[in-house]
Amino acid sequence: MPCTDLNDGFTLGPFITEPNPIISGRDLTVTVKGTLTTPIVDGAEFLIMITNHGTSIYSIVTDFCSISDQDQLPCPVAIGDHSITHKFAIPKEAPAGDYHVRMELINADKSPIACIVGNVSVE
Predict the structure, then answer these.
(1) Who contacts 60 (Cβ-Cβ below 8 Å, separation ≥6)?
(2) Sheet containing 27-36, strands listed edge to edge, beginning at the edge strand earlier in sequence
(3) What digits encode the pLDDT tens for the residues 71-115?
(4) pTM over 0.90
(5) Backbone phi, then psi, for 67, in 5-degree steps?
(6) How many CB atoms sit inside 10 A of residue 98's CB?
(7) What's the rounded Cα separation, in Å, for the pair 121 and 25?
(8) pLDDT over 90 for what percent of the chain?
(9) What is the mean pLDDT of residues 51-79?
(10) What are phi and psi of 44, to 5 degrees?
């Protein structure tokens, strides 16, 4: 499903990854800024799917409020401008190459809030 159908509750601003390109064995810091037009409530789910040449290599569904830094972005998250930064551990075994990443945020009532897709490179 294309992301254009899933962004009714969020307008994406800057999306920053450091380091860029991603380096195997180093943490990846992702900062997402944007404007919520729908509040995020307890029970919202965050999905990440990573594929390489169409083959799924990683996917996870987790409770958004459990991974958001409660000092940075406490749940429930109100309508308005927000920024969230999260670190991901990139295993040193991660092979170099190009990857397709899809991230979705789905509210507790299963209504879509946001969807971000893009391509990243790992060195």
Answers:
(1) 47, 48
(2) 10-18, 27-36, 80-89
(3) 678 889 999 999 888 888 999 998 899 999 999 999 999 999 988
(4) no
(5) -105, -15
(6) 11
(7) 14
(8) 58
(9) 87
(10) -65, 145
Could you tell me the two tokens for 53? Answer: 């040449």
Place of tokens 């969230």: 84
Annotate 69-111 with DSSP letters as a single string. -TTTSPSSBPSEEEEEEEEEE--TTPPSEEEEEEEEEE-TTS-
DSSP-assigned beta bridge partners for residue 102: 49, 117
CA dist 87 → 7, 19, 79 (Å): 23, 11, 24
DSSP state of 3: G
